[in-house]
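Suppose you are handed a protein chain with no further information: no name, no annotation, nothing but its sequence. What can you learn? This example shows the usual starting point.
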Amino acid sequence: MAFQPMSSVPPPNDELAELAAVLGDDNVRMLVRTFLRDFPVSFRELSGGDRKNRHRIAHSMKSNSRLVGAHELSKRMAALEDRLSDESGADVGADDLAAISQDFKAIEPPLREFVGP
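A reasonable first move is to predict its three-dimensional structure. Written in structure tokens, the prediction is:
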């Protein structure tokens, strides 16, 4: 595997800039790459499995979104997590999935630019 230089684009938000100041740009880029790779997988898992598993996935997606500075996405996932924690709460619906997808698509370009090729 050939070495690919990391991007020189600065972090796209304050949260990532603060993390980069502590952990270094390259480590934060790896963290963001992991987020970009794993979030779509978790998104697909929100539609299946049992409610407890969907609750766990929503919690993870909320925390990871907050870590990379995706505030709207994190808030949406927090609301879904709360709803799933209550057995009488509504389950994950098509509207939820569409809104989550839209929020992710809004934050994805600056994150991809930050991590580079």
